[in-house]
Amino acid sequence: MSFKAIRIDKDEQGYRAGLADFAEADLMEGDVTVAVSHSTINYKDGLAITGKSPVVRRFPMIPGIDFAGVVESSSHADWKAGDKVVLNGWGVGETHLGGLAQKARVKGDWLVRLPDAFSPAQAMAIGTAGYTAMLAVMALEAHGANPQHGPALVTGAAGGVGSVATALLAARGWTVIASTGRAAEADYLKSLGAAEIIDRAELSSPGRPLGTERWAVCVDSVGSHTLANALAQTKYGGAVAACGLAQGMDLPASVAPFILRGVSLLGIDSVMAPQARRREAWRRLARDLDVGKLAAMTQTIPLAGAMQAGRDILEGKVRGRVVVEIG
Length: 327
Known about the structure:
This protein has 2 domains: 2-114 and 297-325, Alpha-Beta Complex (Quinone Oxidoreductase, Chain A, domain 1), CATH 3.90.180.10; 129-267, Rossmann fold (3-Layer(aba) Sandwich). It contains 10 helices and 15 strands. It has helices at 43-50, 120-142, 160-171, 186-192, 201-204, 224-232, 256-260, 275-288, 291-296, 306-314, and strands spanning 2-11, 14-23, 32-40, 66-74, 84-88, 103-106, 112-113, 152-154, 176-180, 194-199, 215-220, 234-242, 264-267, 298-302, 321-325. Strands 3, 4, 5, 6, 7, 14 and 15 form a 7-stranded mixed beta sheet that branches. The longest helix has 23 residues, at 120-142. The relative contact order is 0.17.
């Protein structure tokens, strides 16, 4: 039997991605098979679909680093047919066939039960981007940060991680400063809870090792000079949660913020995060995320639209979240 999937190939004809039939017999090893109803497009999916970064490690590959669906069959003790599940990360869509398909076979240990508060479509409106934003907020809170310490900066604020982070932080009482290169998105970001909008140009060029103290915490999905400048302008004892590399993987910073202001840089990994942290993140999302704001940041596309959406997200044309309705 076969099913529809986005398939990536790399051979003498080059690197290409497109909608294709995929044989169920060619699915990889796993003890749970899921009928996928929804997936999403994250920045990493855009890199995989376009081949602009060596995200994909085997060919052919089905991209899609997350999915939501219903268990079709299982030999794993925790899962049975009919269970509603979510998956984020674990190398799915990179080294293991991913979620932009009608079926997926994975390890049961990778799955999280779909929270009752969310439909599968809403879970993918959150997706890895929103789940990562929640991990970042949790890390800042574990550091001891609270809104009384000062404002929160969110970089790449109109993107997926940034949109959810803005909404989550505002809901927790933070005064959110949203950094974006898209001035037209100011009203959108304010609707999510941002109190102030700044141009990303303020942060994206080489800066001083130490700047004026402006914010207590930051959720950064951009990296490079933006992260360096965010650190340089963080208040004494503050923290920056780093979870992305939209501008670059480099960090052209100095030790000054760390040794003169006691600033902490918190690394956020969503791919291999332990199950307890994943379950807590989804529990917190169900409690703290306004589904009305989630709907405002979400657009839905069919599976066949994934290739264009992958290109668009790399070009900065995507606002918020893109849900892929598998069908």
